[in-house]
Amino acid sequence: MESLEAIKERIEAAVPGAVEIVANQGTAAEHSLALDHASAVRVAEFLRDDPALKLDYCSNVTGVDWLDSVEKVREKVTKEVAGESKEVVEVREIETPGYLESVYHLYSMELKHGPVVLRLRTGNRSDQITAPSLTPVWRAAELQEREIFDLYGIVFENHPDLRRLLMWDEFEDHPMRRDYVEPDDYDYEPTPHDEVLDKARAHHTGEGDA
Fold it and tell me: Which residue segments constitute the domains of the chain, with CATH numbers given?
Protein backbone atom coordinates (compact mmCIF):
# COMPACT_ATOMS: atom_id res chain seq x y z
CA MET A 1 0.00 0.00 0.00
CA GLU A 2 1.11 3.57 -0.62
CA SER A 3 2.56 5.70 2.14
CA LEU A 4 0.18 7.89 4.13
CA GLU A 5 1.79 10.97 2.58
CA ALA A 6 1.06 9.65 -0.93
CA ILE A 7 -2.53 8.81 0.05
CA LYS A 8 -2.96 12.33 1.43
CA GLU A 9 -1.70 13.86 -1.82
CA ARG A 10 -4.14 11.83 -3.91
CA ILE A 11 -7.03 12.65 -1.59
CA GLU A 12 -6.28 16.35 -1.89
CA ALA A 13 -6.12 16.10 -5.67
CA ALA A 14 -9.73 14.94 -5.54
CA VAL A 15 -10.90 16.88 -2.46
CA PRO A 16 -8.59 19.87 -1.85
CA GLY A 17 -7.76 20.87 1.72
CA ALA A 18 -9.72 18.01 3.26
CA VAL A 19 -7.11 16.16 5.35
CA GLU A 20 -4.02 16.59 7.46
CA ILE A 21 -1.62 14.01 8.83
CA VAL A 22 -1.62 13.45 12.60
CA ALA A 23 1.70 12.02 13.73
CA ASN A 24 1.77 9.23 16.30
CA GLN A 25 4.83 9.54 18.52
CA GLY A 26 4.34 6.09 20.02
CA THR A 27 6.34 2.95 19.24
CA ALA A 28 3.87 1.77 16.60
CA ALA A 29 4.13 5.14 14.78
CA GLU A 30 0.67 4.52 13.30
CA HIS A 31 0.05 7.94 11.81
CA SER A 32 -3.47 8.95 10.81
CA LEU A 33 -5.51 11.39 8.76
CA ALA A 34 -7.70 14.06 10.41
CA LEU A 35 -10.68 14.90 8.21
CA ASP A 36 -12.42 18.22 7.70
CA HIS A 37 -16.10 17.81 8.61
CA ALA A 38 -17.42 19.39 5.43
CA SER A 39 -15.46 16.97 3.22
CA ALA A 40 -15.38 13.86 5.43
CA VAL A 41 -17.98 11.83 3.54
CA ARG A 42 -16.44 12.68 0.16
CA VAL A 43 -13.01 11.62 1.43
CA ALA A 44 -14.47 8.40 2.84
CA GLU A 45 -16.09 7.60 -0.50
CA PHE A 46 -12.79 8.28 -2.27
CA LEU A 47 -10.93 5.89 0.04
CA ARG A 48 -13.57 3.20 -0.47
CA ASP A 49 -13.84 3.54 -4.25
CA ASP A 50 -10.30 4.42 -5.37
CA PRO A 51 -8.96 1.44 -7.41
CA ALA A 52 -5.55 1.54 -5.73
CA LEU A 53 -6.98 1.63 -2.19
CA LYS A 54 -10.44 0.01 -2.12
CA LEU A 55 -10.74 0.48 1.65
CA ASP A 56 -14.04 -1.36 1.77
CA TYR A 57 -14.01 -2.54 5.40
CA CYS A 58 -14.21 -0.45 8.57
CA SER A 59 -13.00 -2.84 11.24
CA ASN A 60 -13.11 -0.61 14.29
CA VAL A 61 -14.42 2.79 15.42
CA THR A 62 -13.40 4.10 18.83
CA GLY A 63 -14.02 7.25 20.84
CA VAL A 64 -11.44 9.42 22.58
CA ASP A 65 -12.00 12.23 25.09
CA TRP A 66 -9.30 14.90 25.15
CA LEU A 67 -9.58 17.20 28.16
CA ASP A 68 -8.57 20.86 28.19
CA SER A 69 -4.82 21.09 28.61
CA VAL A 70 -2.30 23.72 29.65
CA GLU A 71 1.28 23.62 28.40
CA LYS A 72 3.99 25.66 30.10
CA VAL A 73 6.49 27.16 27.67
CA ARG A 74 9.76 28.74 28.78
CA GLU A 75 10.96 31.60 26.62
CA LYS A 76 13.69 34.21 26.84
CA VAL A 77 12.64 37.87 26.86
CA THR A 78 14.52 41.14 27.30
CA LYS A 79 13.46 43.31 30.22
CA GLU A 80 14.65 46.40 32.03
CA VAL A 81 16.12 45.31 35.38
CA ALA A 82 17.60 48.00 37.65
CA GLY A 83 17.96 50.31 34.71
CA GLU A 84 19.70 47.71 32.54
CA SER A 85 18.41 45.54 29.69
CA LYS A 86 18.72 41.92 30.68
CA GLU A 87 17.62 38.66 29.15
CA VAL A 88 15.37 36.70 31.51
CA VAL A 89 13.40 33.49 31.24
CA GLU A 90 9.62 33.67 31.58
CA VAL A 91 7.10 30.87 31.73
CA ARG A 92 4.04 31.29 29.53
CA GLU A 93 0.96 29.07 29.64
CA ILE A 94 -0.67 27.93 26.40
CA GLU A 95 -4.23 26.66 26.85
CA THR A 96 -5.63 24.11 24.41
CA PRO A 97 -9.37 23.46 24.56
CA GLY A 98 -10.45 19.83 24.76
CA TYR A 99 -12.44 17.94 22.15
CA LEU A 100 -13.99 14.56 21.43
CA GLU A 101 -12.73 12.32 18.67
CA SER A 102 -13.88 9.28 16.70
CA VAL A 103 -11.15 7.09 15.19
CA TYR A 104 -11.79 4.74 12.23
CA HIS A 105 -9.53 1.83 11.17
CA LEU A 106 -9.95 0.92 7.49
CA TYR A 107 -8.81 -2.12 5.52
CA SER A 108 -9.19 -3.45 2.00
CA MET A 109 -10.56 -6.98 1.95
CA GLU A 110 -10.02 -7.20 -1.81
CA LEU A 111 -6.45 -5.87 -1.92
CA LYS A 112 -5.44 -7.25 1.50
CA HIS A 113 -3.90 -4.10 2.94
CA GLY A 114 -4.39 -1.56 5.71
CA PRO A 115 -4.98 -0.08 8.11
CA VAL A 116 -5.56 3.52 7.18
CA VAL A 117 -6.64 5.43 10.28
CA LEU A 118 -9.07 8.37 10.09
CA ARG A 119 -9.91 10.90 12.82
CA LEU A 120 -12.95 13.14 13.19
CA ARG A 121 -12.74 15.79 15.91
CA THR A 122 -15.49 17.89 17.48
CA GLY A 123 -15.18 21.62 18.09
CA ASN A 124 -15.11 21.16 21.86
CA ARG A 125 -16.55 18.98 24.63
CA SER A 126 -19.64 21.04 25.44
CA ASP A 127 -21.75 22.68 22.75
CA GLN A 128 -19.86 21.71 19.58
CA ILE A 129 -20.04 17.94 19.78
CA THR A 130 -21.21 16.97 16.29
CA ALA A 131 -19.35 15.02 13.62
CA PRO A 132 -20.48 13.59 10.28
CA SER A 133 -21.46 9.93 10.34
CA LEU A 134 -19.46 7.61 8.09
CA THR A 135 -22.05 4.85 8.35
CA PRO A 136 -23.47 5.75 4.89
CA VAL A 137 -20.03 4.81 3.50
CA TRP A 138 -19.16 1.85 5.76
CA ARG A 139 -22.20 0.11 7.24
CA ALA A 140 -19.95 -1.58 9.82
CA ALA A 141 -19.63 1.80 11.57
CA GLU A 142 -23.33 1.94 12.51
CA LEU A 143 -23.30 0.21 15.91
CA GLN A 144 -19.85 1.51 16.77
CA GLU A 145 -20.89 5.14 16.19
CA ARG A 146 -23.94 4.46 18.36
CA GLU A 147 -21.66 3.18 21.11
CA ILE A 148 -19.51 6.33 20.88
CA PHE A 149 -22.64 8.51 20.99
CA ASP A 150 -23.78 6.62 24.08
CA LEU A 151 -20.52 6.59 26.01
CA TYR A 152 -18.79 9.79 24.82
CA GLY A 153 -21.62 12.00 23.58
CA ILE A 154 -20.55 12.66 19.97
CA VAL A 155 -23.64 13.39 17.89
CA PHE A 156 -23.16 11.81 14.46
CA GLU A 157 -25.02 13.79 11.83
CA ASN A 158 -26.92 11.71 9.22
CA HIS A 159 -26.54 8.50 11.22
CA PRO A 160 -29.49 6.24 10.30
CA ASP A 161 -30.40 5.22 13.88
CA LEU A 162 -28.56 7.31 16.48
CA ARG A 163 -29.70 6.20 19.95
CA ARG A 164 -28.12 4.71 23.05
CA LEU A 165 -26.68 1.24 22.66
CA LEU A 166 -25.38 0.14 26.08
CA MET A 167 -27.01 2.49 28.59
CA TRP A 168 -30.78 2.67 29.08
CA ASP A 169 -32.82 5.46 27.50
CA GLU A 170 -33.31 7.46 30.71
CA PHE A 171 -29.60 7.48 31.53
CA GLU A 172 -27.97 10.91 31.61
CA ASP A 173 -24.38 11.84 30.80
CA HIS A 174 -21.71 9.76 29.05
CA PRO A 175 -19.75 7.34 31.27
CA MET A 176 -16.56 7.12 29.20
CA ARG A 177 -15.88 10.85 29.46
CA ARG A 178 -12.71 11.38 31.46
CA ASP A 179 -14.39 13.79 33.88
CA TYR A 180 -17.49 11.62 34.39
CA VAL A 181 -18.63 11.44 38.01
CA GLU A 182 -20.51 8.30 38.98
CA PRO A 183 -23.82 9.12 40.73
CA ASP A 184 -24.89 7.58 44.02
CA ASP A 185 -28.56 7.45 42.98
CA TYR A 186 -29.38 4.43 40.85
CA ASP A 187 -33.14 4.99 40.49
CA TYR A 188 -32.94 4.45 36.75
CA GLU A 189 -30.83 1.29 36.84
CA PRO A 190 -33.25 -1.33 35.44
CA THR A 191 -31.71 -4.30 37.27
CA PRO A 192 -29.48 -3.13 40.16
CA HIS A 193 -27.27 -5.85 41.60
CA ASP A 194 -24.09 -6.40 43.58
CA GLU A 195 -22.25 -3.11 44.29
CA VAL A 196 -24.84 -1.07 42.39
CA LEU A 197 -27.63 -2.47 44.56
CA ASP A 198 -25.65 -1.71 47.73
CA LYS A 199 -25.10 1.89 46.62
CA ALA A 200 -28.77 2.31 45.73
CA ARG A 201 -29.85 1.03 49.14
CA ALA A 202 -27.38 3.34 50.88
CA HIS A 203 -28.68 6.31 48.90
CA HIS A 204 -32.30 5.67 49.84
CA THR A 205 -31.60 4.94 53.52
CA GLY A 206 -29.27 7.88 53.94
CA GLU A 207 -26.36 5.64 54.87
CA GLY A 208 -24.34 7.13 52.04
CA ASP A 209 -24.64 10.68 53.42
CA ALA A 210 -21.57 11.91 55.22
Answer: 4-65+99-160 (3.30.460.80)
147's enclosing H/E stretch is helix 141-152
Phi, psi angles (nearest 5°) of residue 80: -85, 115
Pairing of strands 155-157, 130-132: parallel
Task: Give the integer Cα–Cα distance in Å for 83 and 86.
Answer: 9
Confidence at 108, pLDDT banded by 50, 70, 90: very high
Whole-angstrom distance, CA of residue 75 vs CA of residue 91: 6
Q: Per residue in 172-185, pLDDT tens?
A: 899 999 999 887 66
Name residue 46's amino acid: F
Residue 54 per-residue DSSP state: -
- Asked if residue 171 has pLDDT above 80, the reply is yes
